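Form 7-S
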Amino acid sequence: MTRYEPDRFIQFRRELHQFPDLSGQEVDTRHRIKAFVSQFAPSRMTDVAGTGLLLQYGQDAPGPVTLIRADIDALPIQEVNTFAHRSQYEGVSHKCGHDGHAAILARLASLLAENPIMKGRVYLVFQPAEETGQGAAAVLNDPAFAEIRPDRAFALHNLPGYEQGVIVCKPGPFTPSVLSMIVTFTGYVSHSAEPENGLNPAYAMADFMLKARQAQQPDPASDDFALITPVYTTMGERSYGISAGYGEVHLTLRTQNAGRMDALTTDLLAIVSKLSAESGLVVAVSYTDAFFANENDEKAVEQIRASARMRGYDFIEKQEPFKWGEDFGLFTQTYKGAMFGIGNGIDSPALHNNDYDFNDALIEPAARLFLDLIELEHQ
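Output:
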């Protein structure tokens, strides 16, 4: 019998759910994780990426190096659930399941304490700031990570809308490149009765959004996939005697890979340049929340498939990438590895919905699958 009963990890997951932290602010979350996983005797435990945590299993001996990553940040969403473990913080909640991902990694730590690896090293990364696309880079750029060169890197994400526990994966692109574009339009104000004496950005902004819509190819099955989603716009003031002189358009761009993203941004910049020349507006572009595409290594996918089948888990090879971004993509751009999905339940509310909750029944099977992937390399 295991020394660490699975129910303990469900309780831990629900504790994390009750006390969520936003991206880059995971100080309390890290404290809770550190207090909980310290009982599982890691060889080394190090703070990383500002508010993350890095565990090492195995001594510094020759052999393979495997990295398993879980994200730990929450979202600025007001929870509507009324269960006992609901968020205690107004306007902040775990609506992407990162509390569950962290609990899976904690369970894996307990399994590694019970099943020591025979050679090499295993690193477990509790990564902050996934939702903003900044956490993976912070881990990789941290001096504590400088000497770690994983032979394999793995991560998962829970998948609402899929049968509970089914494993979903594919070689090649698994999640897209994602980039948020901020376009500012600067003219100058005037009396609204005399707009000819000012320079109002409204029609240029509208023209830009329509042309952006025409530049997309929203079919995820297409190699030319490019999805452009308007997420925010603002212009002027609620003062009806003033013709606006400034506005912003914020878009989120999604493509299958970095090359297609470069082509898409080039097209949009050409539109911006033409609109600026025609209107006289000063139009500027900046970027934020960049996510690299997850490029799954074929051998790593085969290891996931073999481990799933060995455990009797259903396995689905997805035909096209998901459309949501995931900053584990920076790991798969840097090291060989793969991200896979695990079904959260057919009737589960969608990710980022205010009534979503992680399915606790996934903690044990997901941790066991990760252990199998480790043992394939290290025994």
